[in-house]
Amino acid sequence: MDRIERKAYAKINLGLDVLRRRPDGYHEVKMIMQTVDIWDLLTFQKSGKKGVFLSVDQEGIPTGKENLICRAAGMIMGKYGISEGVEITLNKNIPVAAGMAGGSTDAAAVFHGFNELFGLSMTSLEMQQMGVELGADIPYCITGGTALSEGIGEKLTQLPPPPECSLVVVKPDISVSTKFVYENLHADQLKEHPDIDGMAEAIRTGSLTGITERMGNVLEMVTIKKYPVIARIKELMLDKGAENALMSGSGPSVFGVFKDKDRAEAAAEGIRKEKLAPQIFVTGFKR
Ligand code: ATP
Question: Strand order in 166-171's β-sheet?
């Protein structure tokens, strides 16, 4: 096989808590991760020309070593002594610098893609152990679905999919640096923490209300302080019938959970009219 395609799905955080800042600078987190049906498409083509060549259909995304795709590819090729060339194309659809793990999920797709293209027989665990060296969200992105993520993101507990519902995901026209948000979070001063264990239990028992009433993200306080438009979008979602709305990851994407697609479509239309954000998706959980 010389050419394969692979979809790389985005994630949202139904809940995100930060427990503490470790002495090595990493933050210990406790998050509920959920794959959503918004994806990038990666194509891998073996090539006679040595090296990794990445092309991206969107401006502003690095195509060299700063791209997690190239870093993952380089890591795998080094470990397995692959000397053949590979051309990779990325069709970007996931909002960038948005809190939706766009780069991490692309890197995870590289692990799966190379595994298949070169018949490497890497297990999920092996891919996750390599992936965490490049980014804390990559181990989760290797398996996807619904998961409780702990440690720095490497300790994963798979959960059943939550009940069916619709989502509206809104990405305002700002890019948020994950590093900035964590640097400005004072984990030891947090007074309130979302009930992540309770949410995991609500997922296990299939209670959508149990999930939505526990949605919380401690990073909101940092990002919303800098970008109040996020709070405005959350309010709009609630006004327009969302069960609840939350910022994903370090932001600025906001998602609203709706009981059905008609309500979600109507809310998206209403939010579009406010002209607060250029990217608005009506989507759902990817099972
Ligand atoms: P996370 O949710 O993991 O914090 P994010 O959604 O906030 O991620 P990304 O979309 O991964 O952020 O992009 C953050 C930065 O990483 C971008 O500004 C870009 O320069 C760089 N980057 C590296 N690899 C990629 C990639 N494959 N796709 C998009 N951006 C990438």
Answer: 244-247, 254-258, 166-171, 279-283
**Structural domain that includes position 270:** 166-283
Quick check: is 11 catalytic? yes
Helices (H), 98-246: 102-117, 124-131, 138-143, 178-183, 196-205, 208-212, 220-226, 229-239
Tell me: do 181 and 150 sit in the same domain. Answer: no
Count of residues in the chain: 287
What is the CATH classification number for the domain harbouring 28? 3.30.230.10
Give the end of a domain, one of 125, 158, 191: 158
Q: Whose CA is nearest to atom 21 of ligand 1?
A: 67
Task: Give the predicted TM-score (pTM) of the model.
Answer: 0.96
Q: Report which ligand 1 atom has the smallest distance to the Cα of 248.
A: 2
Q: How many domains, in total, are found in the chain? A: 2
Are residues 40 and 92 in contact, defined by beta-carbon separation less than 8 angstroms? yes
Using a 6 Å cutoff on CB, does residue 62 contact ligand 1? yes
Among 17, 137, 171, 286, the one annotated catalytic: 137
**Rounded CA separation 106/256 (Å):** 24
CA distance 153 to 59: 29
Ligand 1 pocket test: which of 34, 67, 69 has the largest number of ligand atoms within 8 Å of its C-beta?
67
The reply to whether 97 and 154 lie within a common domain is: yes
Is 2 marked active-site? Answer: no
- 115 and 183 share one domain: no
Q: What tens-digit pLDDT sequence spans the chain (287 residues)?
A: 799 999 999 999 999 999 999 998 889 999 999 999 999 999 999 999 999 999 999 999 999 999 999 999 999 999 999 999 999 999 999 999 999 999 999 999 999 999 999 999 999 999 999 999 999 999 999 999 999 999 998 899 999 999 999 999 999 999 899 999 999 999 888 889 999 999 999 999 999 999 999 999 999 999 999 999 999 999 999 999 999 999 999 999 999 999 999 999 999 999 999 999 999 999 999 97
Same structural domain, 121 and 197:
no
Domain edge (last residue) among 116, 141, 158? 158
Say if residue 47 is in the same domain as residue 143.
yes
63 CA distance to ligand 1 middle (Å): 12
Cβ(34) – ligand 1 distance below 6 Å = no
